[in-house]
Design goal:
Helices cover about 60% and strands about 0% of the residues. It is built from 22 helices and 2 strands. The longest helix has 26 residues. The chain is globular and about 60 Å long. The protein starts with 16 loop residues before the first helix and ends with a helix.
């Protein structure tokens, strides 16, 4: 069955929207524990950040009353719950595309292991369903559907849940970012140093973690959630707040879809725990912890990939690389991602300013320009990690390609920063890279 053409059937419909919402509320209210004690979150059990509550409660310092929060949760659950509960019956296939687009999408999938894969184009060709389509394809390519005896319709339903729980209004942390990270993860899993030791379980964990690592991201960072006293910050005691939410939400979707229900209980319990370990590793606050450990392994040459623990550690490193690989892409792709993530930063800064909160680092559009943000990010976060990754892989063509892109992109951002400093200070949006600046830069680099 083609992943591009699957129809979803069998929706449950009630006589009125109130009954639908009531059903969703009953199913979505509680977080659930398995026998292993892993806390999972029902889909849509937490809302978007509703900044109107900030305005109403600025004096008290609390984010809304219990009554307001309850009303908001119910509203969000109604719109975030699966279509099976919402009772929406599609008149036609959700993923039925023109044959020309389908053909182009299939052609791109045949080159999914290439580093110049354009995820933005692929998302357009799949009508905004890049994550679902990509994961279906990769599960098939890696033989995971056969190995784990997965039901194709159930797999598709789970992947739709994941894709729908990303917030499309986020400029950066959306389903296209998840698809981009998943494609990068696929490339890393094929690196010979790692691929020769990976089991089907390792591959499935890597792909699932990449696809769901930012699910239900609210578009603001952890410090924002903490200083606004968001309930997620309280729930996870201000530690890896977003990453814990992404993990527990993923577990909730796995259980709701029953994708792995046919597997032995101990297998599913292990998958849930390892998914958590992988997703939690993407917390940028733990960057030095992983770098120091990786450096120690490489210096001592004591990585034994026959050992499951060492393989899992390298999967964590691979996911961390995939999550921040944008500066290592081709300039045209890298620049788009840079502008998107900075736009998300600036939106947070505007909200903080509006509600008289301290503006977070990198979120002040008047002071933090895109080139300066990217140069700092590349220098202190990306370069150290990818240099160690190249050391691990043994300077493969992919690693060399990524480092070359990284150096060229950093040089371009430095040139743009210099041009911005030389330009008029009356610019209303100093953080933006103008078309004329980029055209001049490209002309200078044309032989």
């Amino acid at each position: 069955m083609s992943c591009l053409m699957v129809e979803r059937c069998g929706e449950i419909s009630f006589d009125s929207p109130d009954q639908n919402a009531k059903c969703v509320r009953m199913l979505g209210d509680a977080r659930v524990r398995s026998q292993t004690g892993v806390l999972s979150e029902r889909r849509g059990s937490y809302p978007f950040i509703d900044f109107r509550l900030l305005n109403n409660t600025a004096l008290s310092g609390e984010i809304g009353t219990k009554k307001k929060v309850k009303r908001l949760l119910s509203f969000q659950r109604y719109f975030h719950a699966s279509r099976l509960l919402r009772g929406i019956v599609p008149q036609a296939s959700l993923y039925l595309l023109d044959e020309d687009y389908l053909g182009q999408a299939r052609h791109m999938l045949s080159k999914v292991g290439m580093w110049d894969f354009d995820i933005f184009l692929f998302d357009r060709l799949t009508n905004g369903n890049s994550l679902v389509t990509l994961l279906c394809h990769l599960f098939n390519v890696h033989g995971l559907i056969h190995h784990f005896q997965l039901d194709m319709v159930t797999l598709h339903r789970f992947l739709v849940m994941v894709q729908e729980d990303y917030h499309s209004q986020n400029p950066y942390h959306n389903a296209v970012h998840a698809a981009d990270v998943t494609q990068a993860m696929h490339c890393y899993l094929r690196e010979p140093k790692l691929a020769n030791f990976l089991t089907p379980s390792d591959i499935m964990l890597g792909l699932l973690a990449a696809a769901a690592h930012d699910v239900d991201h609210p578009g603001v960072n952890q410090p924002f959630l903490i200083k606004t006293k968001h309930h997620l910050a309280s729930l996870y005691q201000n530690v890896s707040v977003l990453e814990n939410h992404h993990w527990r939400s993923t577990i909730g979707m796995l259980r709701e879809s029953r994708l792995l229900a046919h597997l032995p209980k101990e297998v599913t319990q292990d998958i849930e725990q390892q998914l958590g370990s992988l997703i939690l590793a993407t917390d940028i606050n733990r960057q030095n912890e992983f770098l120091i450990r990786l450096k120690s392994h490489l210096d001592n040459q004591d990585l034994r990939l026959e050992d499951a623990q060492d393989r899992h550690f390298m999967l964590q490193i691979a996911l961390k690389c995939a999550d921040i690989c944008n500066p290592c892409r081709l300039w045209d792709l890298s620049k788009q991602w840079s502008e998107r993530v900075c736009e998300e930063f600036y939106r947070q800064g505007d909200l903080e300013q509006k509600f008289e909160l301290e503006i977070s680092p990198l979120c002040n559009q008047q002071k933090d320009t895109i080139p300066s943000i990217q140069i700092g990010f590349m220098t202190y976060i990306v370069e150290p990690l990818f240099e160690r990754w190249a050391q691990f892989t043994g300077d493969t063509p992919l690693s060399e390609n990524m480092l070359n892109h990284l150096r060229r992109n950093k040089a371009k951002w430095r040139s743009l920063l210099h041009k911005q400093h030389s330009s008029s200070r009356s610019n209303d949006h100093p953080g933006q890279v103008t078309d004329s600046q980029e055209q001049t830069l490209n002309e200078e680099e044309t032989p």
